Amino acid sequence: MTTIITEAPRQARMPRSRAARSRGGRRSAGFWTYAALVAVLLGSLFPVYWSLIVASHDNDAIARVPPVLTPGGHLFENIARVFDTTAFGKAMLNSFIVSGSVTVSVVLFSTLAGFAFAKLRFRGRTSLLVVAIATTTVPHQLGIIPLYILMAELGWTGRLEAVIVPGLVTAFGVFFMTQYLSSAVPDELLEAGRIDGCSTLRLFWHVVVPAARPAAAVLGLFTFMQAWNDFFWPLVVLTPENPTVQVALSSLASGYTTDYALVLTGTVLATVPVVAVFAALGRQIIGGIMSGAIKG
């Protein structure tokens, strides 16, 4: 009898311990999982760290053996040389204007179009969406010459309008927001708003926009990065006196000999705004991921 009594609590404790190790059928991450994540994280951060290290030394540091792995004392000197060598301040300002304008426009128009394609019923809706998606299969380089001729006829060559206007809306943004809003906004909620007397524009502003914030943050981040890193079209349509930041970076590396400390200093400066935008939108992005995971 004593054996039965002592064995029973032991058997009762076994399922609890197993449940603690694996709740809901999910196994806890082991040592090698965290080791792999740390290795990927360090591998991703090393190029940024190495750029900062070289930017804080003179140009001879990149050829040293063994390589330098600690910061030097030439960072502010190299930053001053970047602004003296090229119009980097104006290039940063131009990129802010272009990237900010394009991001706001793409998010706004893509959300409007996504709402129309996902929740409004009108003739030719599916055909228009298919045509919009089909435009993504056309290489961007094929439209460079006609687009440049159009910008020249409008008198926009050398001006920021030539970079901003062609990117005010994208087919990817329209498709992305259409797919998100089709599942994020219930039809019953829109019908309830219409019964209460809301117009379509009011439904969009008070119902669709709050629901679209996580997707809009993701789209805004991708759009800002694409506009900030765009090089080919600004190089074609803008002048060296009115560049964007990527064109200014290319001018830093265009000498007879490349000053890598100067180039990587400019690269570090050009990376800061992208990191700042990600930090500003990170909460919305993570919130959207977590809400999707909870719904799933």
UniProtKB/TrEMBL annotation:
Q: List the residue ranges of the region (Disordered).
A: 1-21
> What PANTHER family would the database entry show?
ABC TRANSPORTER PERMEASE PROTEIN MG189-RELATED, ABC TRANSPORTER PERMEASE PROTEIN MG189-RELATED-RELATED
- One short Pfam name that applies is BPD_transp_1
**Membrane topology value:** Multi-pass membrane protein
Positions of transmembrane segments:
31-50, 96-117, 129-151, 163-182, 203-228, 260-281
This chain's protein is named: Sugar ABC transporter permease
Species of origin: Microbispora amethystogenes
InterPro entries, per this entry? MetI-like, MetI-like_sf
